[in-house]
Amino acid sequence: MRMNPATEEGTERAMRKNKRRNFREAAIRAFFFTCGILAVLVLLGIFATLLSTAIPAFREIRPSEFLLKTNWDPTSPEKAEYGILSMVVSTLMVTGGALLLAVPIGIGVAAYLSDVAHWRVREILKPVVEILAGIPSVVVGFLGIVLFGPAIAKVFHTGHGLNAANGSVLLAIMALPTIISISEDALSAVPAAYGEASLALGASRWQTLVRVKLPAGLSGIIAAGMLGMGRAIGETMTVLMATGNARSFPHGFLDSVRTMTSGIAIELGEVPYYTTHYYALFAIGLVLFVMTFLVNMAADVVLRKYQEKER
Amino acid sequence: MNKTIVITVLSLALLGSLLLAAPARKMIQIKGSDTMVNLVQILAEEYMGKTPGAAIAVLGGGSGTGITGLINQTCDVANSSREWKPKEIDQAWEKGIKPRFFVVAVDGLSVIVNDKNPVEQLTMAQVGALYRGEIKNWKAVGEYQKPVSLYGRQSNSGTYVFMQEFVLGNKNYSADMKEMNGNAQIIEGVLQDEGAVGYVGVGYLFDQSGQVRKGLKILKVSKEPGGAGYMPTDKAAVDSGDYPIARPLYMATNGKPKADVGGLLGWISGPEGQAIVEREGFFAIGPNHKAQNEKNLR
Lengths: 311, 298
What we know:
By secondary structure, chain A is mostly helical.
Protein backbone atom coordinates (compact mmCIF):
# COMPACT_ATOMS: atom_id res chain seq x y z
CA MET A 1 0.00 0.00 0.00
CA ARG A 2 1.25 3.34 -0.85
CA MET A 3 0.68 6.18 1.48
CA ASN A 4 -1.25 9.11 0.31
CA PRO A 5 1.38 11.43 -1.18
CA ALA A 6 -0.24 14.43 0.45
CA THR A 7 0.04 12.90 3.91
CA GLU A 8 3.62 11.84 3.26
CA GLU A 9 4.49 15.34 2.25
CA GLY A 10 2.71 16.62 5.34
CA THR A 11 4.70 14.34 7.66
CA GLU A 12 7.91 15.35 6.00
CA ARG A 13 7.09 18.99 6.43
CA ALA A 14 6.21 18.41 10.06
CA MET A 15 9.45 16.56 10.58
CA ARG A 16 11.43 19.33 8.92
CA LYS A 17 9.64 21.88 11.05
CA ASN A 18 10.37 19.81 14.11
CA LYS A 19 14.02 19.56 13.17
CA ARG A 20 14.23 23.27 12.63
CA ARG A 21 12.61 23.87 16.00
CA ASN A 22 15.02 21.49 17.69
CA PHE A 23 17.91 23.26 16.07
CA ARG A 24 16.62 26.62 17.15
CA GLU A 25 16.12 25.30 20.66
CA ALA A 26 19.68 24.03 20.75
CA ALA A 27 21.04 27.29 19.35
CA ILE A 28 19.21 29.33 21.98
CA ARG A 29 20.44 27.01 24.68
CA ALA A 30 24.01 27.35 23.39
CA PHE A 31 23.64 31.12 23.30
CA PHE A 32 22.51 31.37 26.90
CA PHE A 33 25.13 28.88 27.99
CA THR A 34 27.78 31.06 26.36
CA CYS A 35 26.41 34.15 28.10
CA GLY A 36 26.39 32.31 31.40
CA ILE A 37 29.90 31.03 31.07
CA LEU A 38 31.29 34.27 29.64
CA ALA A 39 31.67 35.82 33.09
CA VAL A 40 33.65 32.80 34.20
CA LEU A 41 35.82 32.95 31.07
CA VAL A 42 36.52 36.67 31.53
CA LEU A 43 37.42 36.07 35.17
CA LEU A 44 39.75 33.22 34.27
CA GLY A 45 41.27 35.30 31.48
CA ILE A 46 41.98 38.22 33.77
CA PHE A 47 43.43 35.93 36.41
CA ALA A 48 45.66 34.18 33.86
CA THR A 49 46.92 37.49 32.44
CA LEU A 50 47.62 38.89 35.89
CA LEU A 51 49.38 35.72 36.97
CA SER A 52 51.55 35.40 33.88
CA THR A 53 52.54 39.08 33.98
CA ALA A 54 53.11 39.10 37.73
CA ILE A 55 55.24 35.96 38.04
CA PRO A 56 58.31 37.33 36.19
CA ALA A 57 58.59 39.96 38.94
CA PHE A 58 59.72 37.22 41.30
CA ARG A 59 62.75 36.37 39.21
CA GLU A 60 64.39 39.37 40.88
CA ILE A 61 62.28 40.03 43.96
CA ARG A 62 61.97 37.49 46.76
CA PRO A 63 58.25 36.92 47.49
CA SER A 64 58.83 37.32 51.24
CA GLU A 65 60.55 40.64 50.60
CA PHE A 66 57.71 41.74 48.32
CA LEU A 67 55.00 40.97 50.85
CA LEU A 68 56.71 41.82 54.13
CA LYS A 69 59.01 44.78 53.45
CA THR A 70 57.56 48.25 53.85
CA ASN A 71 59.74 50.23 51.42
CA TRP A 72 58.52 50.73 47.87
CA ASP A 73 60.85 52.79 45.66
CA PRO A 74 61.45 51.12 42.29
CA THR A 75 62.88 54.26 40.65
CA SER A 76 65.30 54.94 43.49
CA PRO A 77 68.76 56.00 42.32
CA GLU A 78 70.24 54.25 45.38
CA LYS A 79 68.64 50.83 45.46
CA ALA A 80 65.33 49.80 43.96
CA GLU A 81 63.02 48.46 46.65
CA TYR A 82 59.86 46.48 46.14
CA GLY A 83 58.10 46.02 49.50
CA ILE A 84 54.33 46.46 49.35
CA LEU A 85 53.39 46.01 53.02
CA SER A 86 52.83 49.75 53.56
CA MET A 87 50.49 49.87 50.58
CA VAL A 88 48.58 46.77 51.70
CA VAL A 89 48.13 48.18 55.21
CA SER A 90 47.11 51.55 53.76
CA THR A 91 44.49 49.91 51.56
CA LEU A 92 43.12 47.92 54.51
CA MET A 93 43.07 51.01 56.71
CA VAL A 94 41.26 53.22 54.23
CA THR A 95 38.78 50.49 53.30
CA GLY A 96 38.21 49.44 56.92
CA GLY A 97 37.71 53.03 57.98
CA ALA A 98 35.22 53.53 55.18
CA LEU A 99 33.24 50.45 56.22
CA LEU A 100 33.25 51.50 59.89
CA LEU A 101 31.56 54.71 58.81
CA ALA A 102 29.39 53.46 55.98
CA VAL A 103 27.95 50.20 57.35
CA PRO A 104 26.21 51.59 60.47
CA ILE A 105 24.98 54.67 58.61
CA GLY A 106 23.94 52.58 55.62
CA ILE A 107 21.95 50.10 57.72
CA GLY A 108 20.42 53.00 59.63
CA VAL A 109 19.28 54.69 56.43
CA ALA A 110 18.01 51.38 55.04
CA ALA A 111 16.03 50.67 58.21
CA TYR A 112 14.63 54.19 58.14
CA LEU A 113 13.62 53.86 54.51
CA SER A 114 12.01 50.45 54.85
CA ASP A 115 10.40 50.78 58.29
CA VAL A 116 10.05 54.32 59.49
CA ALA A 117 9.82 56.75 56.62
CA HIS A 118 6.52 57.96 55.28
CA TRP A 119 6.10 56.66 51.75
CA ARG A 120 6.32 60.16 50.36
CA VAL A 121 9.67 60.74 52.06
CA ARG A 122 10.85 57.41 50.73
CA GLU A 123 9.85 58.35 47.18
CA ILE A 124 12.17 61.35 47.44
CA LEU A 125 15.00 59.77 49.41
CA LYS A 126 15.52 56.65 47.31
CA PRO A 127 16.27 58.49 44.06
CA VAL A 128 18.51 60.90 45.97
CA VAL A 129 20.55 57.97 47.28
CA GLU A 130 20.78 56.61 43.74
CA ILE A 131 21.99 59.97 42.44
CA LEU A 132 24.72 59.83 45.08
CA ALA A 133 25.96 56.65 43.41
CA GLY A 134 26.33 58.48 40.12
CA ILE A 135 28.78 61.14 41.30
CA PRO A 136 32.07 60.63 39.42
CA SER A 137 34.97 59.59 41.64
CA VAL A 138 37.13 62.52 40.57
CA VAL A 139 34.44 64.90 41.83
CA VAL A 140 34.43 63.10 45.18
CA GLY A 141 38.24 63.34 45.23
CA PHE A 142 38.01 67.04 44.52
CA LEU A 143 35.64 67.46 47.48
CA GLY A 144 38.26 65.64 49.54
CA ILE A 145 40.88 68.21 48.59
CA VAL A 146 38.88 71.39 49.00
CA LEU A 147 36.30 70.43 51.66
CA PHE A 148 36.96 67.36 53.83
CA GLY A 149 40.75 67.71 53.86
CA PRO A 150 40.80 71.25 55.29
CA ALA A 151 37.98 70.30 57.70
CA ILE A 152 39.96 67.31 59.02
CA ALA A 153 43.07 69.49 59.30
CA LYS A 154 41.13 72.02 61.36
CA VAL A 155 39.47 69.47 63.68
CA PHE A 156 42.62 67.46 64.40
CA HIS A 157 45.17 70.32 64.11
CA THR A 158 47.28 68.39 61.62
CA GLY A 159 48.34 71.08 59.15
CA HIS A 160 46.89 69.21 56.22
CA GLY A 161 44.05 66.78 55.61
CA LEU A 162 45.57 64.59 52.93
CA ASN A 163 45.45 61.41 54.97
CA ALA A 164 43.81 58.04 55.50
CA ALA A 165 40.90 59.57 57.44
CA ASN A 166 40.04 61.76 54.45
CA GLY A 167 40.15 58.73 52.15
CA SER A 168 37.92 56.76 54.51
CA VAL A 169 35.29 59.49 54.64
CA LEU A 170 35.23 59.80 50.85
CA LEU A 171 35.10 56.06 50.25
CA ALA A 172 32.32 55.79 52.84
CA ILE A 173 30.34 58.31 50.79
CA MET A 174 30.98 56.27 47.65
CA ALA A 175 30.07 52.94 49.28
CA LEU A 176 26.92 54.25 50.97
CA PRO A 177 24.51 54.05 48.00
CA THR A 178 25.41 50.40 47.40
CA ILE A 179 25.03 49.51 51.07
CA ILE A 180 21.79 51.44 51.48
CA SER A 181 19.97 50.14 48.44
CA ILE A 182 20.92 46.48 48.91
CA SER A 183 20.20 46.52 52.67
CA GLU A 184 16.91 48.21 51.99
CA ASP A 185 16.00 45.51 49.49
CA ALA A 186 16.98 42.85 52.03
CA LEU A 187 14.84 44.42 54.74
CA SER A 188 11.87 44.86 52.42
CA ALA A 189 12.18 41.22 51.39
CA VAL A 190 11.65 39.99 54.97
CA PRO A 191 8.15 38.45 54.94
CA ALA A 192 5.60 40.80 56.46
CA ALA A 193 4.38 37.95 58.68
CA TYR A 194 7.63 38.05 60.69
CA GLY A 195 7.11 41.64 61.69
CA GLU A 196 3.41 41.17 62.30
CA ALA A 197 4.02 38.13 64.51
CA SER A 198 6.60 40.06 66.52
CA LEU A 199 4.30 43.02 67.00
CA ALA A 200 1.43 40.69 67.93
CA LEU A 201 3.60 39.20 70.65
CA GLY A 202 3.89 42.63 72.18
CA ALA A 203 7.34 43.64 70.93
CA SER A 204 7.87 47.33 70.22
CA ARG A 205 8.69 48.51 66.71
CA TRP A 206 12.32 49.02 67.73
CA GLN A 207 12.51 45.46 69.11
CA THR A 208 10.85 44.14 65.98
CA LEU A 209 13.36 45.93 63.77
CA VAL A 210 16.48 44.97 65.73
CA ARG A 211 15.55 41.47 66.92
CA VAL A 212 13.44 40.21 64.03
CA LYS A 213 13.84 42.10 60.80
CA LEU A 214 17.59 42.81 60.87
CA PRO A 215 18.50 39.17 61.70
CA ALA A 216 16.06 37.93 59.05
CA GLY A 217 17.60 40.20 56.46
CA LEU A 218 21.15 39.63 57.64
CA SER A 219 22.31 37.70 54.60
CA GLY A 220 21.37 40.60 52.34
CA ILE A 221 22.92 43.10 54.72
CA ILE A 222 26.20 41.17 54.80
CA ALA A 223 26.13 41.05 51.02
CA ALA A 224 25.56 44.81 51.01
CA GLY A 225 28.59 45.33 53.24
CA MET A 226 30.73 43.10 51.04
CA LEU A 227 29.70 44.86 47.85
CA GLY A 228 30.36 48.18 49.55
CA MET A 229 33.79 46.91 50.49
CA GLY A 230 34.40 45.84 46.91
CA ARG A 231 33.50 49.34 45.78
CA ALA A 232 35.86 50.88 48.33
CA ILE A 233 38.89 48.61 48.02
CA GLY A 234 39.22 49.05 44.26
CA GLU A 235 38.52 52.77 44.11
CA THR A 236 41.49 54.65 42.68
CA MET A 237 40.94 58.24 41.62
CA THR A 238 39.44 59.43 44.88
CA VAL A 239 42.17 58.05 47.13
CA LEU A 240 44.83 59.12 44.65
CA MET A 241 43.66 62.70 44.97
CA ALA A 242 42.86 62.85 48.66
CA THR A 243 45.22 60.69 50.68
CA GLY A 244 48.57 62.36 49.95
CA ASN A 245 50.28 59.24 48.55
CA ALA A 246 53.20 59.20 50.97
CA ARG A 247 55.08 55.91 50.81
CA SER A 248 55.92 55.58 54.49
CA PHE A 249 54.28 52.98 56.72
CA PRO A 250 51.09 54.50 58.18
CA HIS A 251 50.93 54.85 61.97
CA GLY A 252 47.40 56.19 62.20
CA PHE A 253 44.50 57.61 60.29
CA LEU A 254 46.08 61.07 60.28
CA ASP A 255 49.10 59.89 58.26
CA SER A 256 49.31 60.31 54.51
CA VAL A 257 48.96 56.93 52.87
CA ARG A 258 49.37 55.40 49.44
CA THR A 259 46.97 52.59 48.63
CA MET A 260 47.73 49.72 46.26
CA THR A 261 45.40 51.14 43.61
CA SER A 262 47.01 54.59 43.68
CA GLY A 263 50.44 52.98 43.58
CA ILE A 264 49.55 51.16 40.38
CA ALA A 265 47.81 54.19 38.88
CA ILE A 266 50.72 56.53 39.58
CA GLU A 267 53.41 54.29 38.16
CA LEU A 268 51.87 52.26 35.36
CA GLY A 269 51.73 55.27 33.04
CA GLU A 270 55.48 55.80 32.96
CA VAL A 271 56.97 52.40 33.71
CA PRO A 272 59.23 50.99 30.97
CA TYR A 273 57.52 47.85 29.67
CA TYR A 274 58.77 44.36 30.54
CA THR A 275 61.01 45.46 33.39
CA THR A 276 60.95 44.17 36.96
CA HIS A 277 59.13 47.35 37.97
CA TYR A 278 56.44 46.70 35.33
CA TYR A 279 55.96 43.10 36.44
CA ALA A 280 55.93 44.17 40.09
CA LEU A 281 53.00 46.52 39.42
CA PHE A 282 51.07 43.57 38.02
CA ALA A 283 52.05 41.59 41.10
CA ILE A 284 50.41 44.31 43.23
CA GLY A 285 47.33 43.91 41.06
CA LEU A 286 47.42 40.18 41.66
CA VAL A 287 47.64 40.63 45.42
CA LEU A 288 44.69 43.03 45.30
CA PHE A 289 42.75 40.53 43.20
CA VAL A 290 43.46 37.74 45.68
CA MET A 291 42.41 40.00 48.56
CA THR A 292 39.03 40.83 47.02
CA PHE A 293 38.61 37.17 46.09
CA LEU A 294 39.19 36.12 49.71
CA VAL A 295 36.73 38.74 50.94
CA ASN A 296 34.06 37.41 48.61
CA MET A 297 34.82 33.81 49.59
CA ALA A 298 34.59 34.67 53.28
CA ALA A 299 31.28 36.39 52.68
CA ASP A 300 30.03 33.33 50.87
CA VAL A 301 31.05 30.99 53.67
CA VAL A 302 29.46 33.22 56.30
CA LEU A 303 26.27 33.42 54.30
CA ARG A 304 26.06 29.67 53.78
CA LYS A 305 26.65 28.94 57.45
CA TYR A 306 24.02 31.45 58.40
CA GLN A 307 21.48 30.04 55.97
CA GLU A 308 22.08 26.50 57.20
CA LYS A 309 21.42 27.59 60.74
CA GLU A 310 18.17 29.19 59.69
CA ARG A 311 16.97 26.00 58.08
CA MET B 1 4.15 64.08 13.79
CA ASN B 2 5.45 67.59 13.24
CA LYS B 3 7.65 67.22 16.27
CA THR B 4 9.20 64.04 14.91
CA ILE B 5 10.12 65.78 11.66
CA VAL B 6 11.64 68.74 13.48
CA ILE B 7 13.71 66.45 15.71
CA THR B 8 14.90 64.39 12.75
CA VAL B 9 15.93 67.45 10.77
CA LEU B 10 17.70 68.95 13.77
CA SER B 11 19.64 65.82 14.57
CA LEU B 12 20.61 65.36 10.92
CA ALA B 13 21.82 68.96 10.82
CA LEU B 14 23.82 68.38 13.99
CA LEU B 15 25.36 65.22 12.58
CA GLY B 16 26.20 67.01 9.36
CA SER B 17 27.86 69.92 11.11
CA LEU B 18 29.87 67.51 13.24
CA LEU B 19 31.09 65.72 10.13
CA LEU B 20 31.98 69.01 8.44
CA ALA B 21 33.76 70.28 11.52
CA ALA B 22 35.86 67.13 11.80
CA PRO B 23 39.48 67.93 11.04
CA ALA B 24 40.36 67.44 7.42
CA ARG B 25 43.86 66.28 8.36
CA LYS B 26 45.64 64.55 11.16
CA MET B 27 46.03 66.36 14.46
CA ILE B 28 49.46 66.90 15.92
CA GLN B 29 49.45 64.98 19.20
CA ILE B 30 51.64 66.48 21.94
CA LYS B 31 51.97 64.71 25.28
CA GLY B 32 54.07 64.83 28.44
CA SER B 33 55.29 67.16 31.16
CA ASP B 34 52.66 68.67 33.43
CA THR B 35 54.96 71.61 34.06
CA MET B 36 54.78 72.45 30.35
CA VAL B 37 51.19 71.52 29.54
CA ASN B 38 49.66 74.98 30.12
CA LEU B 39 52.47 76.76 28.30
CA VAL B 40 52.38 74.46 25.26
CA GLN B 41 48.57 74.63 25.21
CA ILE B 42 48.70 78.42 24.98
CA LEU B 43 51.47 78.29 22.37
CA ALA B 44 49.43 75.81 20.34
CA GLU B 45 46.30 77.96 20.51
CA GLU B 46 48.14 81.07 19.36
CA TYR B 47 49.81 79.11 16.57
CA MET B 48 46.51 77.59 15.41
CA GLY B 49 44.98 81.08 15.37
CA LYS B 50 47.73 82.30 13.06
CA THR B 51 48.05 79.19 10.87
CA PRO B 52 44.98 78.08 8.96
CA GLY B 53 44.61 74.31 8.92
CA ALA B 54 46.86 73.61 11.90
CA ALA B 55 45.32 71.21 14.42
CA ILE B 56 47.12 70.46 17.67
CA ALA B 57 46.10 68.49 20.76
CA VAL B 58 48.12 68.92 23.97
CA LEU B 59 47.97 66.45 26.86
CA GLY B 60 49.75 66.29 30.23
CA GLY B 61 50.51 63.16 32.18
CA GLY B 62 54.12 63.76 33.16
CA SER B 63 57.41 63.74 31.29
CA GLY B 64 57.75 59.96 31.59
CA THR B 65 54.31 59.51 30.04
CA GLY B 66 55.24 61.70 27.07
CA ILE B 67 58.55 59.95 26.50
CA THR B 68 56.87 56.52 26.64
CA GLY B 69 54.26 57.92 24.26
CA LEU B 70 56.83 58.98 21.67
CA ILE B 71 58.62 55.63 21.95
CA ASN B 72 55.34 53.74 21.53
CA GLN B 73 54.27 56.16 18.76
CA THR B 74 51.11 57.30 20.49
CA CYS B 75 52.12 60.95 20.11
CA ASP B 76 54.07 63.12 17.66
CA VAL B 77 55.86 65.33 20.17
CA ALA B 78 56.95 64.50 23.74
CA ASN B 79 57.24 67.33 26.26
CA SER B 80 59.72 66.72 29.05
CA SER B 81 60.96 68.91 31.86
CA ARG B 82 64.12 66.80 32.12
CA GLU B 83 66.65 65.25 29.78
CA TRP B 84 65.87 61.81 28.46
CA LYS B 85 67.65 59.05 30.38
CA PRO B 86 70.18 56.96 28.41
CA LYS B 87 67.90 53.95 29.00
CA GLU B 88 65.00 55.74 27.34
CA ILE B 89 67.10 56.78 24.34
CA ASP B 90 68.30 53.17 23.94
CA GLN B 91 64.71 51.96 24.12
CA ALA B 92 63.70 54.49 21.46
CA TRP B 93 66.49 53.42 19.09
CA GLU B 94 65.56 49.77 19.56
CA LYS B 95 62.08 50.62 18.31
CA GLY B 96 63.42 52.64 15.39
CA ILE B 97 62.59 56.00 16.97
CA LYS B 98 65.33 58.62 16.54
CA PRO B 99 64.52 61.35 19.05
CA ARG B 100 65.50 64.96 18.27
CA PHE B 101 65.39 67.49 21.07
CA PHE B 102 64.22 71.09 20.98
CA VAL B 103 64.69 73.34 24.00
CA VAL B 104 61.66 75.62 23.99
CA ALA B 105 61.90 77.44 27.33
CA VAL B 106 63.86 77.63 30.56
CA ASP B 107 62.16 77.04 33.91
CA GLY B 108 63.33 78.29 37.28
CA LEU B 109 62.12 75.54 39.57
CA SER B 110 60.86 77.36 42.64
CA VAL B 111 60.83 76.27 46.25
CA ILE B 112 57.66 77.51 47.93
CA VAL B 113 56.34 77.69 51.49
CA ASN B 114 53.20 78.97 53.21
CA ASP B 115 53.44 82.71 53.87
CA LYS B 116 53.06 82.08 57.64
CA ASN B 117 56.57 80.57 57.45
CA PRO B 118 59.20 83.22 58.35
CA VAL B 119 62.05 81.47 56.49
CA GLU B 120 63.20 83.56 53.50
CA GLN B 121 66.18 81.72 52.08
CA LEU B 122 67.61 78.19 51.88
CA THR B 123 70.80 76.74 50.49
CA MET B 124 70.73 73.99 47.88
CA ALA B 125 72.03 71.60 50.55
CA GLN B 126 69.18 72.53 52.91
CA VAL B 127 66.55 71.96 50.22
CA GLY B 128 68.10 68.56 49.56
CA ALA B 129 68.17 67.70 53.26
CA LEU B 130 64.53 68.72 53.66
CA TYR B 131 63.44 66.43 50.83
CA ARG B 132 65.65 63.54 51.94
CA GLY B 133 63.82 63.73 55.27
CA GLU B 134 66.93 64.74 57.23
CA ILE B 135 65.45 68.01 58.48
CA LYS B 136 62.22 67.24 60.31
CA ASN B 137 61.46 70.62 61.87
CA TRP B 138 61.72 74.14 60.48
CA LYS B 139 63.66 75.27 63.58
CA ALA B 140 66.76 73.69 62.04
CA VAL B 141 66.77 76.33 59.29
CA GLY B 142 65.00 79.32 60.85
CA GLU B 143 62.95 80.81 63.65
CA TYR B 144 59.94 78.56 63.20
CA GLN B 145 58.71 75.75 65.43
CA LYS B 146 56.77 73.54 63.04
CA PRO B 147 57.18 70.01 61.68
CA VAL B 148 58.16 70.01 58.02
CA SER B 149 55.43 68.73 55.71
CA LEU B 150 56.86 67.74 52.31
CA TYR B 151 54.96 68.16 49.04
CA GLY B 152 56.39 66.74 45.83
CA ARG B 153 55.43 65.22 42.53
CA GLN B 154 54.93 61.59 41.52
CA SER B 155 57.65 59.51 39.95
CA ASN B 156 56.24 59.99 36.42
CA SER B 157 57.05 63.69 36.70
CA GLY B 158 60.15 65.21 35.12
CA THR B 159 60.27 67.68 37.98
CA TYR B 160 60.45 64.77 40.45
CA VAL B 161 63.39 63.24 38.61
CA PHE B 162 65.14 66.58 38.06
CA MET B 163 64.91 67.44 41.77
CA GLN B 164 66.11 63.99 42.76
CA GLU B 165 69.17 64.15 40.51
CA PHE B 166 70.01 67.80 40.86
CA VAL B 167 69.03 68.80 44.40
CA LEU B 168 68.83 65.55 46.39
CA GLY B 169 72.14 64.35 44.98
CA ASN B 170 70.63 61.16 43.55
CA LYS B 171 69.41 60.02 46.94
CA ASN B 172 65.96 58.76 47.88
CA TYR B 173 63.12 61.12 48.64
CA SER B 174 61.76 60.87 52.18
CA ALA B 175 58.99 58.28 52.30
CA ASP B 176 56.89 60.85 54.16
CA MET B 177 56.71 63.15 51.14
CA LYS B 178 53.17 63.57 49.89
CA GLU B 179 53.16 62.78 46.18
CA MET B 180 50.77 65.14 44.44
CA ASN B 181 49.17 64.85 41.05
CA GLY B 182 50.51 68.08 39.57
CA ASN B 183 51.92 71.56 40.19
CA ALA B 184 48.49 72.99 40.95
CA GLN B 185 47.85 70.39 43.67
CA ILE B 186 51.19 71.15 45.32
CA ILE B 187 50.27 74.84 45.44
CA GLU B 188 46.84 73.93 46.83
CA GLY B 189 48.56 71.89 49.58
CA VAL B 190 51.13 74.57 50.44
CA LEU B 191 48.43 77.26 50.66
CA GLN B 192 46.62 75.26 53.36
CA ASP B 193 49.53 73.75 55.27
CA GLU B 194 51.61 76.04 57.49
CA GLY B 195 54.49 73.57 57.73
CA ALA B 196 54.60 72.89 54.01
CA VAL B 197 57.41 73.09 51.52
CA GLY B 198 56.83 72.36 47.84
CA TYR B 199 58.52 72.68 44.46
CA VAL B 200 56.75 73.87 41.31
CA GLY B 201 57.54 75.30 37.89
CA VAL B 202 57.83 79.08 37.98
CA GLY B 203 54.90 79.45 35.57
CA TYR B 204 52.50 78.24 38.25
CA LEU B 205 53.32 80.92 40.84
CA PHE B 206 51.22 83.71 39.43
CA ASP B 207 47.49 84.37 39.33
CA GLN B 208 45.54 85.85 36.41
CA SER B 209 46.77 89.38 37.07
CA GLY B 210 50.42 88.36 37.13
CA GLN B 211 50.83 88.64 40.93
CA VAL B 212 52.33 85.86 43.05
CA ARG B 213 49.45 83.76 44.43
CA LYS B 214 48.16 85.02 47.77
CA GLY B 215 49.30 82.95 50.76
CA LEU B 216 52.36 81.64 48.93
CA LYS B 217 55.98 82.55 49.57
CA ILE B 218 58.79 81.89 47.10
CA LEU B 219 62.10 81.17 48.81
CA LYS B 220 65.45 82.53 47.70
CA VAL B 221 67.94 79.78 47.02
CA SER B 222 71.71 80.08 47.31
CA LYS B 223 74.37 77.74 46.04
CA GLU B 224 76.58 77.86 49.16
CA PRO B 225 75.87 78.52 52.85
CA GLY B 226 76.26 82.26 53.42
CA GLY B 227 76.14 82.94 49.67
CA ALA B 228 73.70 85.33 48.06
CA GLY B 229 70.24 83.89 47.48
CA TYR B 230 68.28 84.49 44.30
CA MET B 231 64.64 84.27 43.29
CA PRO B 232 63.51 81.99 40.45
CA THR B 233 61.53 84.95 39.14
CA ASP B 234 64.74 86.93 38.59
CA LYS B 235 65.46 86.52 34.89
CA ALA B 236 69.03 87.79 35.06
CA ALA B 237 69.87 85.35 37.87
CA VAL B 238 68.36 82.40 36.01
CA ASP B 239 70.14 83.35 32.76
CA SER B 240 73.52 83.74 34.45
CA GLY B 241 73.09 80.51 36.42
CA ASP B 242 73.16 82.33 39.77
CA TYR B 243 69.77 80.86 40.57
CA PRO B 244 70.83 77.26 41.03
CA ILE B 245 67.70 75.24 40.22
CA ALA B 246 67.00 76.16 36.58
CA ARG B 247 66.43 73.69 33.80
CA PRO B 248 65.64 73.62 30.10
CA LEU B 249 62.24 72.35 28.96
CA TYR B 250 62.32 69.99 25.99
CA MET B 251 60.06 69.01 23.14
CA ALA B 252 61.18 65.87 21.33
CA THR B 253 60.20 64.53 17.91
CA ASN B 254 60.88 61.30 16.07
CA GLY B 255 63.60 62.21 13.54
CA LYS B 256 63.37 65.37 11.47
CA PRO B 257 59.98 66.94 12.23
CA LYS B 258 57.43 66.81 9.41
CA ALA B 259 56.32 70.10 7.85
CA ASP B 260 53.44 70.75 10.27
CA VAL B 261 55.34 69.88 13.46
CA GLY B 262 58.44 71.67 12.19
CA GLY B 263 56.41 74.80 11.53
CA LEU B 264 55.15 74.77 15.12
CA LEU B 265 58.57 74.18 16.67
CA GLY B 266 60.21 76.85 14.49
CA TRP B 267 57.55 79.34 15.50
CA ILE B 268 57.97 78.52 19.21
CA SER B 269 61.75 79.05 18.96
CA GLY B 270 61.19 82.35 17.15
CA PRO B 271 60.47 85.76 18.67
CA GLU B 272 56.66 85.35 18.78
CA GLY B 273 56.77 82.01 20.60
CA GLN B 274 59.44 83.16 23.01
CA ALA B 275 57.46 86.31 23.85
CA ILE B 276 54.60 84.04 24.96
CA VAL B 277 57.05 81.89 26.94
CA GLU B 278 58.12 85.00 28.85
CA ARG B 279 54.56 86.21 29.29
CA GLU B 280 53.64 82.88 30.91
CA GLY B 281 56.34 83.27 33.55
CA PHE B 282 59.02 81.03 32.03
CA PHE B 283 62.28 82.28 30.53
CA ALA B 284 63.23 82.61 26.87
CA ILE B 285 65.93 80.34 25.47
CA GLY B 286 69.44 81.64 24.77
CA PRO B 287 71.21 81.80 21.38
CA ASN B 288 72.87 78.38 21.79
CA HIS B 289 69.59 76.54 22.22
CA LYS B 290 68.08 78.55 19.36
CA ALA B 291 70.91 77.56 17.01
CA GLN B 292 70.56 73.92 18.07
CA ASN B 293 66.80 74.00 17.40
CA GLU B 294 67.35 75.43 13.93
CA LYS B 295 69.87 72.73 13.16
CA ASN B 296 67.43 70.05 14.33
CA LEU B 297 64.71 71.41 12.06
CA ARG B 298 66.84 70.77 8.99
